[in-house]
Amino acid sequence: MFRETARGINFRFMSGEISAEEITRYFLKRIRLGDGAVGSILALLEEGALAQARELDHRKSRGDKLGPLAGTPILIKDNIHICGEKTTCASRFLEHFVAPFDAFVVTKLREAGAIFIAKANLDEFAMGSSTENSAFQKSYNPWDLERIPGGSSGGSAAGVSAMFAPLSLGSDTGGSIRQPAGLTNLYGFRPTYGRVSRYGLVSFGSSLDQIGPFARDIDDLILLQEVLAHHCPLDSTSLANAHEPLLTKDTSLQGKRLGVAFELLDRVDSDVSEVYHNAVETFQELGCEIVPVSMAFLEYAIPTYYVLSSAEASTNLARFDGVRYGRRSPDARELEEVYRLSRMEGFGPEVKQRIFLGTFVLSSGFKEAYFQKAQKVRRLISEEHKALFERCDMLLLPTTPTPAFKAGEITDPVHMYLQDLFTSSGPLVGCPSLSFPAGFSKTGLPIGLQLEGPLMGDRETLRFARAFQEVTPFASKSPPAFDKEFA
């Protein structure tokens, strides 16, 4: 069963071949037996998942109409609310916080019949590129258990890659879906900003955050994205036309213009460069016109992103004060001590670092020099993107500079931030971006590439990836250690 797509599992359930409870017990067992080595799961939602499964079996027996994900297990990144379950954001500050309501995406998944099987690990408050910043545990890459799965949605990616569930949700602020997808041989999609509601997502950078799907198969990812993308009246940034049909039988790319930036290959290792060149040839064989482009502005995307995202994080995390919810220091005696000690004890080093940076760039005397200047550069980057899409229909970028690195290998913060070199410009613009399986290194590690489309070009971005999957074998590969039934 673990080899099947989400659509295949749903078909077997709907045909009566297998019950939702049997499906759920199967994947719960895989998690219990396999996640000790991966560390992708923060909370196993066994009781709730089995209750959901039995309800689906009961509704099916009555002949009720069921949704397109009925009987399909899904992992939820632990910064997205499921009512009655903990939302920890992998932080000591929210270690015991129980979500009082469902996120909008969780409501849509319930309606579609998905089964919430576990909450997935992440870098604390989604701040990181390796899932080494979780307050509770590190996550590892199923393709090499000494290496990182990427971040911040590393648990969501590692869990699907290890086949603990066919689908998962992550959040992407500067690359946190696409980067781990690229390192674990998955599809990871960041939709156009506003396509998917942020209601019920714990905020990091409000103008940048976006929820999106992971899957091993492009049609599964398209199905999940269609379920997620609806207008939400509780989110002021939700698009009125958020929903659109995404799956099309027409995968012809004949005459499409693909923008390629070979200059970016000076910033990647030889394996990534080779995979990029091979992908360009594949798209050319599919009928694309290859359009050389320059993306020199990426040099400015990283500092712009980290100034703006840290400023927004500083503002958003001010609500965690030890008074209303979350951790409250037992040693605090006065209000100032409540604030100071609760945050000191509750936040990890990376979160503190970004709060300090954000507070600094917003402070009197520095706001104009840093924050306001970054906003101006953001606008210029948006204009550069717009100009590129006047020349081409789609852009092809690397996802990461290298395949997955070993845990603990990168200790310098700037070196770690540069892992987002190719993923940080898209969020500044708000355009759709997809990391897709594109090949492997000489040592067998997955290498993903990115398709980046124009604003509202979600359907076309997914169509390019679907055409690529039809003529390549990469997405069908699984981590050798997990490509088996667990006894």
In short:
The chain is α/β, with parallel strands linked by helices. It is built from 15 helices and eleven strands. It is 39% helix and 12% strand.
CA radius of gyration is 21 Å
Strand content: 5-15%
Q: What are the secondary-structure elements, in order, as H or E?
A: HHEHEHEHEHEEHEHEHHHHEHHEEH
Instruction: State the fourth-level CATH superfamily of the domain at 6-252 and 462-482.
Output: Amidase signature (AS) domain
In the CATH hierarchy, the third-tier topology of the domain at 6-252 and 462-482 is known as: Amidase signature (AS) enzymes
The total count of strands amounts to: 11
Q: Classify the secondary structure makeup into a structural class.
A: alpha/beta
Biggest sheet character: 11 strands, mixed
Number of helices: 15
Task: Please tell me the CATH architecture of the domain at 6-252 and 462-482 by its name.
Answer: Alpha-Beta Complex
Give short descriptive properties of this protein.
487 residues; alpha/beta; Amidase signature (AS) enzymes; 11-stranded mixed sheet; 11 strands; globular
